[in-house]
Write a structure and sequence with these properties.
Keywords: Methyltransferase, Transferase
GO molecular function: S-adenosylmethionine-dependent methyltransferase activity
Organism: Antrihabitans stalagmiti
Number of domains: 1
Helix content: 25-40%
CATH architecture: 3-Layer(aba) Sandwich
InterPro entries: Methyltransf_11 (IPR013216), SAM-dependent_MTases_sf (IPR029063)
Bound molecules: S-adenosylmethionine
Number of strands: 9
Domain Methyltransferase type: 99-195
CATH superfamily: Vaccinia Virus protein VP39
Largest sheet: 9 strands, mixed
Length: 253
């Protein structure tokens, strides 16, 4: 976080924070900013616990493409085509400031950084030390920074982001619609959001699946309605298998 010469990506991420919304602001020895300190979002499910283990965070990047291809068909894997699809929906451009909420090991964040460079910044946000350790090690770059924070209470000031992604994470967040409201708050007017999350299969009760997996299965209208209620416009939905991608825009006024 040196302040001489051009600021590091981490120093630029620190400038986006609202200190009143941070429990602490510490430069973690692994290379990310920690705004949670000893506190963390409660772990209520097995899936949430898994996200905070070294073994899962280490294997995640290998497993994710095949798991998503299996569950979601064409959409969802983190191959080049999927990265291009999400980047297109986010309308990312060099110079943009973007947040990747629930970034895990940064498997999309590093790419987003390459799309916002030069002049922009991609900030991966996650609650898990284990995931952020991998993110810094595997997916850093000249326009990439990582922040440990809670999606339900984002540590950023209002209106700092041109775009926000929340990929394969909303179904793990205890209060997903609080997270959507927070994303709305931190977006600039005209800012874009893309959510990739679960889609409950039609006509099949999802309760038992949710109970076993610890993953919320969202209905077809749940996310579009949530975005509309938060104030978003230009809401568009794509579905594939057990996944849905929803994009929207914060009104300019
Ligand atoms: C399955 S990973 C997704 C990683 C990546 N975005 C992708 O598309 O592959 C979901 C991440 O969401 C994070 N997460 C869950 N609840 C969170 C919360 N309340 N605040 C911040 N991160 C959270 C988990 O720690 C986990 O790393």
């Amino acid at each position: 976080m040196t302040r001489t010469g051009s600021p590091t990506p981490t120093a630029r991420a620190a400038d986006l924070l609202d200190p009143a919304r941070c429990r602490t602001v510490e430069a973690h020895r692994d290379g990310y900013l920690d705004t949670l300190g000893a506190t963390e979002p409660p772990i209520l499910t097995f899936a949430q616990r898994l996200m905070r283990t070294t073994i899962y965070s280490t294997g995640y990047q290998l497993l994710r493409p095949s798991v998503y291809r299996l569950l979601a068909g064409a959409i969802g894997s983190n191959g080049d085509a999927e990265r291009a699809r999400i980047t297109g929906l986010l309308r990312l451009e060099p110079g943009d400031t973007m947040l990747d909420i629930g970034c895990g090991p940064g498997n999309f964040t590093g790419w987003f950084g390459s799309q916002t460079f030069p002049g922009g910044l991609a900030v991966g946000v996650d609650a898990s030390h284990q995931m952020l350790h991998r993110a810094v090690a595997d997916n850093s770059g000249p326009a990439v920074a990582y922040v440990r924070g809670d999606a339900e209470n984002l540590p950023f000031a209002d209106g700092i982001a041109d775009a926000v992604s929340c990929l394969a994470a909303l179904y793990l967040i205890n209060k997903p619609f609080d997270a959507i409201e927070e994303i709305y708050r931190v977006l600039k007017p005209g800012g874009r959001i893309v959510i990739l999350t679960s889609l409950a299969p039609k006509g099949i009760p999802v309760g038992p699946l949710e109970k076993v997996s610890g993953i919320t299965m969202f209905g077809r209208d749940a996310i579009t309605d949530g975005l509309r209620n938060a104030g978003f416009i230009e809401i568009a939905l794509q579905t594939g298998g057990l996944a849905q991608t929803v994009s929207a825009v914060k009104p300019t006024r």
